[in-house]
Amino acid sequence: MMKVLISGCNGAMGQVLTKVIEEIQDMETVAGIDINPDRNNNNYPVYSKISSFKEKADVIIDFSNPNCIDLLLDYGIKTKTPLVIATTGITNENAEAIKMASEKIPIFQSANMSLGINVLINLVRKAATIFNESYDIEIIEKHHNKKIDSPSGTAYMIANAINEEFNNSKEFAFGREGTNERRTKNEIGIHAVRGGTIPGEHTVIYAGMDEIIEIKHTALSKKIFAQGAIEAARYIIGKDTGLYNMNDLICLSDE
Questions:
Q1: Given the DSSP bridges, would you call strands 106-109 and 242-244 parallel, antiparallel or unpaired?
Q2: Is 202 considered catalytic here?
Q3: Is 143 tagged catalytic?
């Protein structure tokens, strides 16, 4: 039986993950960590600090907040527990800390745990190599009205993946306002929409002369992110130290 510790268990994604794990026969949630431990009636103990958790977990799945990352990494290193970090809004400092910690424990980190969105990223990379500089590239992301970070971590993942195909020569243009400047060829436009209960939608537009190509992914519920995190958890247990992501999991699926 795989024992899971959920960080951020009382948040929206933590609760979705809790319900998905309840339906899996070979997996159980042994405890949760949340700054609001009494918010929900969970069927497992919930602690306000990870240092209060004295049992043993096979893996930690994190859907919390970037402010919790350092304590989570310290605990993972101390107890030699693999981590799946699915928290969005990761800062450059967080990313560096995660990279350093991965030299001591296996860590799986992705801003988006959907298999589909990571297939999309591979597709937009390929499109960038084919269309090269002859097409303008715009990214539109849509999320629910409670999402804090903007643009989404996934939008950054997509933009960075495309930019790598251009040797990181592109500049990101966030939204557009004003009438003084035309769009330049050196831009990747990134636009954010917030409203209602949209789980997540990302569209990449390649606009050329007399034709438009759109590559789009729509999440119909948060459940797909929980399922992806669970697959990541299964993957990371038993791995050597290092930093892993969805590309590693996708390659495993291809084999």
A1: parallel
A2: no
A3: yes
